[in-house]
Amino acid sequence: MSFVLSKLLWPLVSPGNFLVLVLTVGTILLFMRRHVRLGRRLVVAATLGFLLITATPLSSLVALPLEERFAKPSLPDHIDGIIMLGGGVNPYLSLDRNEPSLNNAAERVLAFADLIRRFPTARHVFTGGTGQLFEPEATEDIPLKAALVQAGIDPETVVYENQSRNTWENAVLTQRMVQPSAGETWLLVTSAMHMPRAVGIFRKVGWPVIPYPVDYRTRSGARPYTRFDLDLQMETLRDSVREWVGLVAYRAMGRTDSLFPGP
């Protein structure tokens, strides 16, 4: 139920979509004599919102605390297992074009392939089904296998979990599949912005992991930067707001060990 609600509600509160809704309602009210003033205010508010996102470091400031939470670790000599969370491929484009399509989190795939080479005797696990309400057959394991082949990795050396729909299910279903033993050392590969929530979930299910963050959207040393680029800034703001909302929601549902999991 929580999965369905999240997919239905998020499009309404996603920053870009929300501003478009405000702008649309405001524009409609401009043509209604009794509500012209309210319509004008909404149009101005939406315009200022887009300008704020485009011309200020707002998106970086929202994302920075998430990405700075876990530093890239110094890896031990022995690793028992490596887990890559889904989210780095476009399963629908991959099916349509019959070739692997990566998205803006492609660093997950690259880091996973690199770690497989560096730790060939470890257990290599990918977890990711589909995060969409429709087209459940478009699971992420299919394009990932093809992407690993292009990266020079034998896809048969990886164990695939392809039924999970969100990060909670990633942890629960993967733990059930691989049954890690106490004292084993496992790496968790996902986007730096997503790492706090992911680590909190894995801790909650009793599976301690070493965070291996990749796919950074902000500069190192907590330095915000500004580009006059609505697409880039909106994408960073959207993803970081979704993580903050996810942290609050998952904590409320008892799915993380703390509100803002840290080292």
User: What's the order of the H and E elements?
Assistant: HHHHEHHEHEHEHEH
CATH architectural arrangement of the largest domain? 3-Layer(aba) Sandwich
Question: What gyration radius follows from the Cα positions, in whole Å?
Answer: 20 Å
Give the CA-CA distance, first to last residue.
Answer: 31 Å
Main CATH class of the largest domain: Alpha Beta
Question: Main sheet?
Answer: 5 strands, parallel
Give unreliable regions as ranges: none
Strand order of the largest sheet: 3-2-1-4-5
Q: How is the CATH topology of the largest domain named? A: Rossmann fold
Helix content: 40-55%
Task: Tell me what portion of residues adopts beta-strand conformation.
Answer: 5-15%
Topology, number of strands: 5
Give the integer mean of the pLDDT values. 90
Helix segment tally: 10
Give the class from helix and strand content and strand pairing.
Answer: alpha/beta
CATH homologous superfamily classification of the largest domain: HUPs
Overall geometry comes to elongated
How many domains would you count in the coordinates? 2
